[in-house]
Amino acid sequence: MNASVAAAAANQTTSEGTQAATTSAAPAPIDLTVLNFALTLEHLEATYYQEGLSKFGLDAFSSIGLPNFVLQQFKTIAADESIHVTFLQNAIAATFGMDLAVPKCTYNFDGALANIQSFITFAAILEKTGVQAYDGGVKLIVNDGIKTAAATIATVEGRHSSFLNLLTGAGPAPGPFDTPLGIRPVISIAAGLIKSCPYTLPAMPFPALTTVDGSGLTSGTPVASGSTIPLMFTGGMGMTATDAAALSCNWVFGVEPQVRTSIQMGSNGPECQVPSEIQKAAFTQAVVFVVNESRDVALDDDKNVVAGPATVFVGSAKASGSVGRK
């Protein structure tokens, strides 16, 4: 594939081969930021699969009832991610100049690669995050050629994500729309696997957000609409009722209107209610943030975020949430 995104943007041609007029803006500094942001994620994914597949072979997949076909699909996904890395590196060099593409970071995959189940579960998280990152990044990109390049990767990431969702029992799609995320929320998700980087990340991660008992955080332990989930985040356990009243859970699912539910102090600390709007809009997952202002978390404005994001599965409890079969 031709990696010259600049040429693709500047020289749109008709089917007859004549140059067509284009109003696409020239590549901008924010385009380089987004491309390097994407490259940061692709480095992470490519390295994750490389290390995972060097540790887990057919015996590991067979031990949880998965056939050779699944292993071969993992190898295909790994190859795709490596190709994405090379494409982005070449695109940055062709569009902005040499030596501007970010290198790999140093990673900590100890927990993610503890066993074959965790390897598959974290792969599903990474691919879902990749889809959300590309969907959110498109809004920030100025140049049309770079937008198109990003879109061609995003759709492949979506196919990877659907395959892995089926393995984890989440279903191929979490709803009628994907949920785009901005740069800082994506970095916040990836931060748990990054030990250090030889460059400054484009954003500092938010404090982590999780639930006290882990409920709702996997497809095997969904929470029901209207139920209350106990939250864990920096400073949460020491809050007073007055402190909690100043915060909300901000729920984001696809392109639906964002919903906020109040935070109260319960027996296990701060907690909030899962809104019914998620399932009414035909979603089985939603992204939740803790916020300190009653306004949406925007792709280019997340200054109201206190902690997060976390992905919460919504629905009825089921036994199919574990990877593989007994």
What is the terminal separation in angstroms? 42 Å
Say how many strands there are: 9
Q: If you average the pLDDT, what whole number results?
A: 90
**Beta-strand percent range:** 5-15%
Number of helices: 9
> What overall form do the CA principal axes indicate?
globular
Radius of gyration: 21 Å
Query: Low-confidence parts lasting 5 or more residues at pLDDT below 50?
Result: 5-22
Strand order of the largest sheet: 3-4-7-6-5-8-9
Structural class, judged by helices and strands?
alpha+beta
What level of helicity do the residues show?
A: 40-55%
Helix/strand order = HHHHEHHHEEEHEEEHEE
Question: Largest sheet at a glance?
Answer: 7 strands, antiparallel
Write the layout of secondary structure elements.
Blueprint (H helix, E strand, L loop, with lengths): L4 H6 L18 H27 L2 H6 L4 H29 L9 E2 L8 H25 L3 H25 L14 H8 L3 E3 L13 E2 L16 E5 L8 H5 L2 E5 L6 E8 L2 E5 L3 H4 L4 E7 L13 E9 L13
Antiparallel strand pairs: 1-2, 3-4, 4-7, 5-6, 5-8, 6-7, 8-9
Task: Give an overview in words.
With 326 residues, the protein is α+β, with helices and mostly antiparallel strands. Helices cover 41% and strands 14% of the residues. The strands form two sheets. Strands 3-4-7-6-5-8-9 form a seven-stranded antiparallel sheet. α2 runs antiparallel to α4 (68-96) and α2 runs antiparallel to α5 (116-140). It is globular and about 55 Å long. The relative contact order is 0.14. The model is unreliable at 5-22 (pLDDT under 50).
Question: Which features does this protein show?
Answer:
326 residues, alpha+beta, seven-stranded antiparallel beta sheet, two-stranded antiparallel sheet, 9 strands, 41% helix, 14% strand
